[in-house]
Amino acid sequence: MIFLPLPEDVQFLLSRLENCGYASYVVGGCVRDLLRKENPADWDIATVALPWQVQACFPEVPVIATGIRFGGVTVVLPSGRYEVTTLRKDGFYTDGRRPKEITFSGNICEDLSRRDFTVNAMAYRPLDGLCDPFGGRKDLQYGILRCVGDGDVRLLEDVLRVLRCLRFSATLGFDIAEDTGQSIRRAAIRLTLLPPERVLQEWLKLLAGSFAGDVLDRFPEVCRVLLPECMPFSFVSRWKNLPADPLLRMSSLLLDQGETQQTEILTRLRYPTRTRQRILFLCRQGRSFSGGVLALRRLLSVSSVEDVRRAVLLRYCFSPEEQAVQLVFLEDILQRGDCCRLKDLALTGHDLYALGFRGPALGAVQRWLLDAVINGQLKNEREVLLTQVKSAGSLQ
Ligand code: ATP
Ligand code: MG
Q: Could you please report the per-residue DSSP string of 89-151?
């Protein structure tokens, strides 16, 4: 019998439920991760106990009825919150709408059969070991994503599974089984039916996956639905010299579009305003950044170090050598502590205020001084800057 190590909290929850007479399991993604010897991101506990029975098992801690009609409660332990769900028969409802009624089940296999992929459809009960009715462990061993049951039916039930599949393939580096892949191609057009917010959630996780380029190149049918304007696009070759960073990868995808089109696409995909602005900035720099110390300093005066680094990587994404050269320039600037921002100026806002500057005029002088320092026309020394401001004042 297979043994999986569970954290103390999870053991406590399971044994309490078991002691009250309810068969209980850890289930889904956390079992997959445990078998891969990875730390699960979250723990899902499934039990034959009904929600109110779960509540009765834990009189001493808060148990929140997160979705009591739908079989879920959250047990709040000092060290964290755990979702405990009653075994059920009906499907996942991922579009935000919930079924009026759900059907509970006393049978773990029934609960596993409504899950998306075989590697996600395993449960573990310390008393019984692994419950794996769909061959999830073998698929995990071979690195294969396969729908539980008929792919066409399962993806029609919930088309978000198309993106989940691509996301798992992108993050775990797993292959997609041939027939599941065919079902994905047939279901892709239905992605238009999903709320864009749900698509974005999965899309961002997908973009962060080390193998995202390979997966997306293999499924142009999906990309054509999500990003018709950008296709065809050769993901692997365009992303070869970029880190697995969602912001950079998205910017790279949009690089050849005009700014109006870029804004339209990002708005349609529901990128939050701030992220949209950052991507537009990266695209602009990705096309026009001239390189060199001065240009880097100027960029640092209007953007964060991380985004300047991104801009460099994007601008020279076809030349790792040039990327490296520019990144060395950037590191030198940071190491030396070159003055690139208003807050680095040796003359402060207070100084300028004391000299009689107010409001927009004060801001304009600061910016003017900063530009002069960045360009190397003035030394960033208090006396130098003071003299400069005073003499400029006397010229007026
Ligand atoms: P992650 O590492 O992102 O948490 P996960 O597999 O745990 O991956 P969750 O969204 O936490 O994903 O879902 C937990 C489990 O619930 C999944 O492993 C799967 O068994 C099931 N599940 C989640 N969403 C769906 C869905 N849309 N269709 C079918 N089963 C799903
Ligand atoms: Mg999970």
A: SS----SS---S---B-S-HHHHHHTSSBGGG--EEETTTEEE-TT-HHHHHHHTEE-BSS-H
